[in-house]
Amino acid sequence: MTPVLAADGLTFRYDPAAPLLEDWSVEVGAGEVVAVTGPSGRGKSTLLYLLGLMLAPRAGRVLLDGQDVTTLPDARRARLRAHRFGFVFQDAALDPTCTVLDNVLETALYRGDDRATATRRAAELMAEFGVALRAHARPGQVSGGQAQRIALARALLGEPDVVLADEPTGNLDPESATVVLDALHRQAGRGAAVLVVTHDPRVVARCDREVVL
């Protein structure tokens, strides 16, 4: 079966003399939750940016449903990100000028989703993740753990085919971390490919397999 997402021989470097990733490959199938681990500075976050079409590799390919999407025009890559991918960044990456609710809705509205329907779904996810009462607050008024759960709600709002999560439980207590991991597994159960960058062995234990950088 063709994997949902694959990297084929990815090479990337910020410093020409020091490759961060060198001829690196992975496949993630529908329904899989894969942990990406390794020492700090090995390029785990960069790998997610490459797989999420936010960076272009120096060499190699990113494949979505078996199709090479590495060299698509920027506008096409942006549409794929909005329609097929969900991202949870390590620092949550919330817009401080918008309310929490508008941050959750941002990608859905970019896709052209109906606002009322998206708002109802956002409210359900925010309640599930324990941040419903913060809907009209600004990101600067919520804790780091709450911001991470808000970012997860944004990532899952569109039922993405691929979820890329960078330390999604890093700021969370064990109970909240379980809620987040359960949500990622439910998305995988719907057929998504899920990659989770983590240093937490408890998170690795909940994943289907581990890939070490």
Describe the structure using short key phrases.
single chain; 213 residues; alpha/beta; Rossmann fold; five-stranded parallel β-sheet; four-stranded antiparallel β-sheet; 7 helices; globular
Q: How would you describe the overall organization of this protein?
A:
The protein has 213 residues and is α/β, with parallel strands linked by helices. The protein has seven helices and nine strands; from the N terminus they run E-E-E-H-E-E-H-E-H-H-H-E-H-E-H-E. The chain has one domain: Rossmann fold, CATH 3.40.50.300. The strands form two sheets. A five-stranded parallel beta sheet has the order 6-7-8-3-9, with helices on both faces. The longest helix is centred in the last third of the chain and has 16 residues. The protein is globular, with a radius of gyration of 17 Å. It starts with a strand and ends with a strand. 40% of the residues are buried.
